[in-house]
Design brief:
Elements lengths: L9 E4 L6 H8 L12 E4 L9 H11 L2 E3 L7 E3 L9 H11 L2 H16 L8 H16 L4 H9 L6 H20 L9 H14 L5 H9 L8 H19 L8 H15 L5 H9 L8 H17 L9 H14 L5 H9 L8
Parallel strand pairs: 1-2
Antiparallel strand pairs: 3-4
Helix pairs in contact: 1-2, 10-11
């Protein structure tokens, strides 16, 4: 405060104020008693919005038309408010409007691409609308060759689908940087998009530029189905070791995967090598979720009561009776008998 620099004949207002006293102090930086210069004030913070500090100053100065000068100066300092620009930013916009708008928007487009890493969408303000206008003008043949060349030079996407493709590409790029793999089937929408790219390449309709972009992030053009199957099998084995049973079909991805393997085996779609691997671990091929649920309840009952339920004791006792009867009739599958034998289930009651 109170700093005075000789030769200052302009001031820029960069701090918002609605106090005419503060504004007058700011003006004082470019005023000098006895000088015949008329300083220029650039108000970048638009002090005129709302309550006008200049109008307040004008009224105050009209009330005090003359302010006595310091003792070292003979005479009076007179102030007169003669006028001002309402908003310096509006003047800047007017100046830009007088220029050719295309180069201005073109430069803004380059800045946007460098900052955001993508092209603006049509709904993203003036720049997005401008991009859409260029696409339409090119289709109609009204866009000059020079403008087309300039946009081509920066890799501008003429088709809206290109922007959507890049959105999926950026999402995949992030996914692979975190997971270090491509998305699996059914994992998210990205997997469907990835399969579309694979099919497009096989058909020869995927551009070299898109192939290059996908190659740059290590995209898997051929899915390693064997590795994927092994990964799922290891997850199922981990479940079995933890819970001492195979997952049910309604128990998440592991249960759904097991159900798929059973169906594939019935249809003859599961390789002998995979069947052998699963057999080696005692995988149950013919399984009924309701039966397994009762089997687990029976295990729990025995661990809590140290005995087997009687036939008339509860539903579980009735279920045990049904298993014994099925064995006598030769209707109990060997896999179920093996499971009951593992827990020392008594087949003959005394």
């Amino acid at each position: 405060e109170g700093l005075h620099v000789e030769g200052v004949d302009a001031a820029m207002f960069l701090r918002r104020t609605e106090s005419y006293v503060v504004a007058l102090q700011q003006l004082g930086r470019c005023l000098k008693a006895g000088s015949d210069r008329h300083p220029v004030v650039l108000d970048f913070v638009n002090n005129l919005s709302g309550r006008s500090v200049y109008e307040a100053m004008s009224r105050e100065l009209a009330y005090h038309p003359a302010i006595r000068a310091p003792k070292s100066f003979k005479g009076f300092m007179e102030f007169e408010v003669t006028g001002f620009l309402s908003d310096i930013r509006a003047r800047v916009d007017d100046m830009l409007a007088e220029l050719d708008a295309w180069p201005v928007m073109y430069e803004r487009l380059i800045e946007y691409k460098e900052r955001e890493g993508r092209w603006p969408q049509a709904a993203e303000g003036k720049l997005g609308n401008w991009c859409n206008t260029q696409r339409i003008a090119r289709k109609k043949g009204t866009l000059s060759e020079d403008y087309i060349l300039q946009l081509d030079r920066i890799g501008f996407e003429w088709e809206v689908q290109d922007s959507r493709w890049m959105q999926y590409y950026e999402e995949l790029k992030v996914f692979m940087s975190v997971e270090h793999r491509c998305p699996k089937r059914g994992e998210n929408k990205l997997n469907t998009w990835c399969n579309t790219q694979r099919q497009a390449r096989k058909k020869g309709i995927l551009s070299n530029e898109r192939i290059r972009l996908l190659d740059s992030i290590g995209f898997w053009w051929e899915q390693d189905l064997d590795s994927l199957w092994t990964e799922n099998w290891q997850q199922v084995l981990a479940y079995y070791k933890k819970h001492k049973r195979w997952p049910k079909s309604n128990e998440g991805k592991a249960g759904s995967w097991c159900n798929t393997q059973r169906k594939n085996r019935k249809r003859g779609l599961l390789s002998a090598e995979r069947i052998a691997r699963m057999d080696a671990e005692g995988f149950i091929w013919t399984i009924d979720d309701v039966w397994m649920e009762n089997y687990e309840k029976l295990q729990q009952f025995f661990s809590e009561n140290n005995r087997w339920p009687t036939a008339r004791e509860n539903k579980l006792g009735s279920w045990c009776f049904v298993q014994r009867r099925a064995l006598k009739k030769g209707e109990l599958p060997p896999t179920r008998k093996d499971l009951l034998d593992k827990i020392a289930f008594p087949w003959n009651l005394k």
